[in-house]
Structures are given as C-alpha cells and as structure tokens.
C-alpha cells in the first residue's frame, strides 16, 4: 500500500514538521543560490579567458609584426650595404686606373641590377635629385620621379630605411613597400 508523503508528515510532531519545512526551504535556497553563483562565476571566467586570449593574441601578433619588420629592414639594409660595397669596389678600380669610370659605372650597375629582392622586389639606382639612373625596366631610366613623396624622402635622407605605399601598374590598390638606401656620394647614386 502506497502512502502519501504529506499524510506521513501530518502525523509528525510540530518540531519535526518545522525541521522538515526549514530543511526543505534551506535546500531550495542553497540550490538556487548555487545555480546563480555558478552562472555568474562561469560568465566571469569565460570573460576573463576571452580577454586573456585576446591580449595574448594581440601580443603575439605584435611580436610577429615587429619580428617581420625588423627582419625586412635588416635584409634590405644588408643588401643595400653589400651593393654599396660593390659600387665602392668598382669606383676604386676606376680611381686606380684599372678600368675607366664609365666601365666602372656600367659593371657596378650590371651587378646591382642583376639581383632581386624576394619574388617581386628589385634594386634600382637614383641620382641625388630623384632621376632614375639605372632600373630593371630600361624605359624608366632618365625619368625624373622626384615628385613622389617617398622619393623626396629618399633625397632628404640619402641613407636609411623608408616605408611607403605604392601602386604598381598591375596592382588593384597601393600596397605597403619598404626600401633601404645607401648613398654613394662620388657618383651621386642612391642605391
């Protein structure tokens, strides 16, 4: 025979009834409080984890960008300085009378222009006024490009690293570019 639990409680003494009611209320309050606290703590932990992940990702991204930028700058600097040494070598040969100044310029330019920077980069030579002396595209040689901001910066700096945006004819929009200039004063060449 099945007995209703409320019928069983009816027969208890008052102190047991109060104990049962208080215990039941306590259990309900504790359960609800635990659920509320769990929800709040879970949300805060998730927010903190997301925030830390964003901060870590941002820090890693900045570190990678800095490393790439420094790597590019150092590579361009090394290439530029090596080409400066090549030009200096041919200048010294012409100064010592082993070759003519014209031959020295031609051989130096030939070696400098034979190099590539990455897959699309190249080396060119401008004079101190922004005129193209030597360029992989022969049709650009002799062209005055001093009206471009980055060339004006090159003219004013003569040596050093420059970042700029440029749109090649086959590009849809300007892209970030970088260059490192070494100025060879005897020939007025910016390499």
Largest β-sheet summary: 4 strands, antiparallel
What series of H and E elements makes up the topology? HHHEEEEHEEEE
Main structural class? alpha+beta
Main-sheet strand order equals: 4-3-8-7
Describe the structure.
This protein is an alpha+beta fold and 191 residues long. It contains 4 helices and 8 strands, in the order H-H-H-E-E-E-E-H-E-E-E-E. The protein has helices at residues 5-10, 14-95, 101-113, 149-157; strands at residues 116-117, 121-122, 125-127, 132-134, 160-166, 175-181, 183-184, 189-190. The strands form 3 sheets. It has a 4-stranded antiparallel sheet with strand order 4-3-8-7, covered by helices on one side. It has a two-stranded antiparallel sheet with strand order 1-2. The chain has a two-stranded antiparallel ribbon with strand order 5-6. Strand 7 (183-184) and strand 8 (189-190) form a beta hairpin. The longest helix has 82 residues, at 14-95. The radius of gyration is 38 Å and the shape is rod-shaped.
Main attributes of the structure:
58% helix, 191 residues, two-stranded antiparallel ribbon, rod-shaped, 4-stranded antiparallel β-sheet, alpha+beta
């Amino acid at each position: 025979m099945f007995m209703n639990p409320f019928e069983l409680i009816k027969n208890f003494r008052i102190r047991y009834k109060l104990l049962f009611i208080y215990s039941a209320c306590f259990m309900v309050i504790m359960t609800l409080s635990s659920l509320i606290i769990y929800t709040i703590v879970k949300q805060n932990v998730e927010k903190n984890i997301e925030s830390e992940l964003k901060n870590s990702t941002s820090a890693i991204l900045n570190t990678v960008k800095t490393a790439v930028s420094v790597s590019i700058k150092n590579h361009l600097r090394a290439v530029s300085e090596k080409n400066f040494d090549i030009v200096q070598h041919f200048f010294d040969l012409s100064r010592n009378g082993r070759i003519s100044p014209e031959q020295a310029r031609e051989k130096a330019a030939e070696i400098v222009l034979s190099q590539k920077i990455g897959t699309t980069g190249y080396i060119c030579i401008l004079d101190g006024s922004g005129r193209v002396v030597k360029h992989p595209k022969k049709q650009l040689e002799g062209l005055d490009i001093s009206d471009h901001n980055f060339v004006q910066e090159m003219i004013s700096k003569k040596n050093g690293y420059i970042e700029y945006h440029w749109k090649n004819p086959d590009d849809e929009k300007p892209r970030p570019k970088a260059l490192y200039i070494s100025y060879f004063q005897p020939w007025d060449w910016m390499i």
